[in-house]
Structures
1.
Amino acid sequence: MIFPRFAPLALLMFFLVLPARASWISPFISEIHYDNKGADAGELVGVSGPVGLDLSDWQVILYNGADGRPYRSVSLSGQLAGSAGEWAEAYWPMAGMQNGPDAVALYSAADGLIDFVAYEAGLTASAGPASGATARVLPLSEGGSTAIGSSLQRVGGSGDWDWVLASATPGILNPGLVGFEVERVPSMGAWALWLAGIAAWLFWSSVRTPRQMPLKCGVRE
C-alpha cells in the first residue's frame, strides 16, 4: 500500500531525475555560406547534432530581413550519420540565398523553433514558424571579397557563440567544435534513473507501513 505521507518523497525523486532527462544539447545551425566574390557559388546551410538524430519533419527556413517574412523553406529528412555517441553535420544547398541582412531558422514540428541566426543585421520574424522571435546575430559576415569555397562556421563548446570564416566543410563537423561527443545524456539512461526513483518510492512505501498498536483485552470482573 502507498501512503500519501510519502508523496513528497516521490515528487522529490521525480524532479531530481528530470534534469537528467533534459540535459542534452539541442541541434544547431553550424555552417552558412551565402556570398562570395563574383557570382555566388556553393551557398549552403549546415546543421550539427547528435548522430542518429531523425530530421523528419524538420525545416530550414530562410527569412527576409526587409520584412521579417520567410522567403524559402527546405524540408529535411533522414538521420545524422556517424559513430554512435558522437556529433555530425548535414548540409543543404541553398542556391539563391539572399546576401543579407537576412536570417536562417531551424524548426522542428515536434519541438518548435530550435535555432534562429541572422547575418549582417538583427531580425525579428513577423511571420512563419519563427514569428515573434528575434534572431541571434552572427559576429561575422561574408561579402564581395569573400573567397569562393569559404563559409561561416560555429566553433567552440556548447556554451560558446564563436564563429569563424574558413574553408567550407559541408557535411563535416566543424574542426573548431569541441566537446560535443560527450555532452549529451542518452535518454535511455535518464529513463533508467526515473524508473529507479519510482522503484525506490514503491519499496520505501511498502516497508514503511503504519505501526500497529497492540490490542488490549480486558477481563470483566
Note: The longest helix spans residues 187-207.
2.
Amino acid sequence: MTREDPTDEGAALRRLWLGRHLPAAVLLLGAATALIRARDLDLAVARRFFSAAPPHWPLETAALVAGLYDWGNALSLGLLAWALVSLVGGLFSTRLRGARRPAAFVLLLGLLVPGLLVNTVLKPNWNRARPRNVVEFGGTNEFQPVLSPPGDHERHSFPSGHVASASLMVAPAFLLRRRRRRAARIALALALAWTAAMGLVRIQAGGHWLSDCLWSLGLTYIGACLLGAWLLGGSDPEQQSHSAA
C-alpha cells in the first residue's frame, strides 16, 4: 500500500478554499448585503436597541457590553502573540520549525485584513455615520445604506474594527482543517459565535450597523480563504520529513 502523497492533501485544501468556501463566502456576503439594503435591516435592527428617552442606547453601559468592548480583543491579541512567538522561535528551534507556516498565516491575516484593510484603508476613509450619529436616532447625519458612497463628514462606522478583530478567531479552523476536520468545524462554529456576540455588542451600543459587522466577518473569511490556499494548501513540511525518513 503506497503512502499518501502529502501534496494531495494540500491540493484538496486549495480546491476546498478557493473552489467552494471562497465563492460561497462572496455569494453569501453579496446576498446578505442586498437583503439588508432592500429591507432596511440596518435601521430595523438598530431600532430594537434605541430608546427615545435618554440614555438612547441603554445597553451601551451594561457590564457585559462594556466588558466585551474593552477586553474583547484579548483573544485575537493572544492568537497573534502565539503566532509571533512561533514564527520567530521557528527560526532558531527545530521543534517550532513546523509552526512557521501556520504562524505566518495568522500574522498575515491579522495584519492584512483587520489591520490594513479594515482599520487603515476602509474605516478612516469611508465616512459612514454610526447609528448614534443619524437623524433617525437623534443625531445630525443622514443614514447611509451599506456600500453607499462615503459621506462628507468624519464618521467611521464601516466596517467594524472590533468585529474584524474578533473574526480573526476563524484562523484556528483553517489551521486544524488538514489533520483534525471535526475540531476545525467546532473551531469555526465557536469563532462565528464569538464574532456574532461581538457584533451584537457593537450594535446594542449604537456603534455599528448590522452590515458593518457582516462585512468585517466577510472580509476576514475571504482573506483567510486566499491566504490559506497560499500558505496552508501546500505540502506539510513535517509530513515530508517523515516520508523522506
Note: The first helix runs from residue 6 to 39.
